[in-house]
Model the fold of this input.
Amino acid sequence: MIAKDIMTREVISVRPKDKLEDVAKLLVVNKISGVPVVDDECHLLGIISEQDLLIKADELKMPFYITLFDSIIFIENPIRFNNNLKKYTAVNVNEVMTEKVIAVEEDATIPEIIAKMHAHKINRVPVVRHNKLVGIISRNDILKSLVQDNG
Done:
């Protein structure tokens, strides 16, 4: 079995300038945890998940630092704080989406897909043809295919 055999073809996706509030509603209403971000020609640009949106619900914490000889030494990562601050103040999808998307082609095998999901600790993998979104595979899609094979 390969990706095109188990992928969901009717993919819910969003555009870069969509409002985060609308995306949150979309996830809740459709009971999904993330969606691909595409342009008008369905080219895959990124992905946005619940985790990206949860930053806004969390308390923003300043990185811990100490002052030594008139220098500031950060004990915690200030880059992470800057990234979280951007997400915390974001309004549109393009401000919080993950741009480096792990995707697969239609002919990827199930073991290859599982290995990618495992290695990158991701819950869903967009399926592309010439970098255009044609489907998506979630962990649940893989489980369904395993049950069907053994059932």
Remarks:
- Helices lie at 3-6, 20-30, 50-54, 78-89, 110-120, 139-150.
- Strands lie at 34-38, 44-49, 65-68, 71-74, 104-105, 124-129, 132-138.
